[in-house]
Design goal:
With 183 residues, the protein is α+β, with helices and mostly antiparallel strands. Helices cover 34% and strands 27% of the residues. The chain contains eight helices and eight strands. Strands 2, 3, 4, 5, 6 and 7 form a six-stranded antiparallel beta sheet that branches. A two-stranded parallel ribbon has the order 1-8. Strand 4 and strand 5 form a beta hairpin. The radius of gyration is 20 Å and the shape is elongated. The termini are close together.
């Protein structure tokens, strides 16, 4: 028996298994969101601890055209000037396209911080720039058309079971609980 607890996207699952036509058809419909967090030292930003953000649609709508625009600003510690900026970026990117993404994100983040009356010190102080894919999901119309029911029908065929981000969000605890349920 195999419990596949990894991204079900075909670039990952297709490397691990010889996918059936049904599996490939389902897994090709999985969408990902590019998650980007940039950390700045910001002087003069008068916000308390917490997250200040835009509409959730900016985070989950993979078809939005305003990529590179920050959707959230967070300050987690009151005893220092570190601020996290959350931004959607294009994913995947073609070879050579990745070079300008950091500059675009830094520029737009600095603009937003300035609008909030802060002074970012990206180059002069400690900072980060991290990107990764996140939030495996299918579009609402695909879900409505029975995507999850079709996936459940595949559970156990060929002694293979599927868990992971597309079935239980991206949390280890819920993935582990679903795995335990399948066992």
């Amino acid at each position: 028996y195999l419990i596949l607890a990894c991204p079900l996207t075909t670039d990952v699952s297709g490397e691990l298994l010889a996918l059936s036509d049904d599996e490939r058809a389902l897994f090709e419909q999985i969408q990902l969101v590019s998650y980007c967090m940039t950390t700045f030292s910001v002087k003069g930003l008068e916000i308390g601890r917490g997250v200040y953000g835009g509409p959730l649609a900016a985070v989950i709508d993979v078809d939005r055209k305003d990529l590179g625009e920050p959707w959230g600003v967070a300050k987690q510690w009151s005893d220092n000037d570190l601020v996290q900026i959350y931004t959607r970026t294009k994913w995947p990117v073609a070879e050579g396209e990745d070079a300008g993404i950091e500059e675009e994100v830094v520029r737009s983040s600095q603009r937003v911080i300035g609008q909030m009356k802060g002074v970012p010190e990206y180059a002069a102080k400690w900072h980060t720039f991290d990107r990764w894919t996140y939030f495996q999901h299918v579009k609402p119309h695909v879900m409505k058309d029975g995507w999850y029911a079709r996936l459940e029908k595949l559970q156990g065929q060929n002694n293979t079971f599927y868990v992971g981000g597309a079935t239980n969000f991206e949390l280890i605890e819920s993935i582990g609980m679903y795995t335990k349920h399948l066992v």
